[in-house]
Amino acid sequence: MQPVETAIAVRQSAPAGAESAAIRVQGKFFFTGAAKFFIKGVTYGPFGPGSHGAQFPERETVIRDFRLMAEMGANTLRVFTVPPLWMLDLAAAAGLKVLAGIPWSQHITFLDSPPVQTEIIRTVVEAVRGLERHPAILAYLVGNEIPPDMVRWHGPERVRTFLKKLVGAVKEIHPEGLVSYANFPSTEYLTIDFTDFLCFNVYLHNEPAFRRYLSRLHNLAVDRPLVLTEFGIDSMREGNEEQAKILSWQLRTAFEMGAAGTFVFAWTDEWFTGGHLIEDWAFGLVDRQRAPKPAFAAVR
């Protein structure tokens, strides 16, 4: 097994036009050229494996999804598994950016084993290398909601140090790339002050509480952009109209209070996790057949 130090890939040449299309951070916001870029995103997946081998729908469905996203006004999608290059090409053709999540074994005691740590770093390195600094990439996420029991077991400072190492590994391959980690309130004490922007997944359906927590998150972000990487409503339990109503005020409030971007969970009711489709949740803006729900119009 390679040492950690030699697992870092050599910097590759960027695809044509990648640097000109890149999003950069300036203060509390993202910019493209001289214009502010507000992330108006949706989460996409995870899905079951398609005939192409990746955990994404068939190409024709992806094309239809991206067309509908653009029609709704989204400019970014967040994925939880590493996207294939053909999907990034389709996103670029639709005018969409991609926040690429890189999954790894964060639900085990990963810091108790040096070989496991080396393998995680290799996984992240190979994922970023394989994306070839594609111009559709908005940024990379090197983790998502490490369980509180894992953070307590290892200690927040050790987990923080390891995440910082993952960010450094990405920067070795793509120095201009933006990198973050998606935290959540259960591990708010895990100080993430070394990423390009602060990401939090927040599920609060009470507007005053939502406003208070956004203020709290701005204190944590300090001078970096704040991005809500997940929030959503289960229409199966709350109803379609209530889902639309809550998402409407959440989006309005987030941008009113200075968020640099948001990702609604989720694009579609189709959701695959733990090796099977989830049938008793319906967080999508469109249903499994891609018919728009009232929340689609509210988000647009």
Lay out the secondary structure.
Layout: H1 18-21, E1 24-26, E2 29-32, E3 35-36, E4 39-44, H2 59-72, E5 76-79, H3 85-93, E6 97-101, H4 114-130, E7 137-144, H5 148-154, H6 156-173, E8 179-183, E9 198-201, H7 207-221, E10 226-231, H8 235-238, H9 240-256, E11 261-264, E12 272-273, E13 276-277, H10 294-299
Parallel strand pairs: 4-5, 4-11, 5-6, 6-7, 7-8, 8-9, 9-10, 10-11
Antiparallel strand pairs: 1-2, 2-3, 12-13
Descriptors for this entry?
single chain; 300 residues; alpha/beta; eight-stranded parallel beta barrel; three-stranded antiparallel sheet; 10 helices; 18% strand; disordered N terminus
Describe the structure.
The chain has 300 residues and is α/β, with parallel strands linked by helices. It contains ten helices and 13 strands. It has an eight-stranded parallel beta barrel with strand order 4-5-6-7-8-9-10-11, surrounded by four helices. Strand 5, helix 3 and strand 6 form a beta-alpha-beta unit. Helix 4 runs parallel beside helix 6 and helix 7 runs parallel beside helix 9. The longest helix has 18 residues. The protein is globular, with a radius of gyration of 18 Å. The protein starts with 17 loop residues before the first helix and ends with a helix.
